[in-house]
Amino acid sequence: MVDFALTLWEALWPLIWIVIKILAIVVPLLVAVAYLTYAERKVISAMQRRKGPNVVGPLGLLQPFADGVKLFLKETIIPSGANRAVFLLAPMLTFFLSLVAWAVIPFGEGLVLADINVGILYLFAISGMGVYGILMAGWASNSKYSFLGSLRSAAQMVSYEVSMGFVIISVLVVVGSLNLSDIVMAQKNMWFVIPLLPMAVIFFISTLAETNRHPFDLPEAEAELVTGYNVEYSAMTFALFFLGEYANMILMSGMTTILFLGGWLPPFDVAPFNLIPGPIWFALKISMLLFVFIWLRAAFPRYRYDQLMRLGWKVFLPISLAAVVVVSGVLVAFDMLPVAGGMR
């Protein structure tokens, strides 16, 4: 009996260990999403000279949990003309995709759930699938406002994914590897934001459009679409969309950090910078980018839809495509082609 128990434990331990590692990523991420909503309300209120959340708990720190409890206890209302299965599946898919992408994100040297050699392709594939949840929600709601919002989102995400793809290609040409840890280690001497600054700016602005954030929140335009694709959602179904959007904000900030800001690497490899653990640097860089997300929401008006499309197709696409040619040409001209994930 003891031998059987030991054998069973040895067989189950790898699965249990994977579940522990997944929880170690998902639980802090959900807490971060909750407090990102709090930080957004506090930062915007400070910029507008208001107090923001300050009642529930000290300094309003328990407000995200109060909001979560409220959404959990509310009734989920499904429109009578909606496709029930697709209506309920759409927010689940959006939330699920925002979590599974973190499987390949390296938080530090060796601190990654799945260190696969095509990590950047995995991330790009997951971000490309995000549009399905929004399209499903818009169609299944049986509402013209939801449907128009989902169509806007689909066109917007597809448009900016093209320029994002070319920006990623320019980084991959420099590194010579699709592994995210290799991309970070290739920035040991210099972060890519310095030589590839225009690409970093285009990528970050494209992440704003990809996550439907200001000034590109056209799918949620309150004036004409009454919040767009999620207008018919309430309670936990709405909360899943909400959580998915903010988790995607953190994910896109993490991608920008890995591609251009050196991931977990410190800005200078000298004391006291190199004494701070890598995951702390990674979190600080993501927090800085998230502050910019919030800052832009408070500072900029919404783009018109034609301006949004013109920026994506007539500005970002030609520049990012030209950058791939220029970066490749410079590497060939100066004999700097990457060898085994590093520069020659």
Describe the 3D structure:
By secondary structure, this protein is an all-alpha fold. The chain has helices at 2-47, 63-73, 84-100, 119-140, 144-175, 180-185, 197-210, 222-225, 235-260, 278-299, 305-333, and strands at 338-339, 342-343. The chain has a two-stranded antiparallel sheet. The longest helix has 46 residues, at 2-47.
Q: Provide the β-strand percentage band.
A: under 5%
Bulk shape:
globular
What's the helix count?
11
**Which strands sit side by side, in order, in the main sheet?**
1-2
Indicate the low-confidence ranges by residue numbers: 340-344
Distance between the termini: 59 Å
User: What structural class results from the helix and strand content?
Assistant: mainly alpha
Give the tally of structural domains. 2
What is Rg?
Answer: 22 Å
Helix content: 55-70%
> Averaged pLDDT, please?
85
Biggest sheet layout: 2 strands, antiparallel
The overall strand count is 2
Strand and helix order:
HHHHHHHHHHHEE
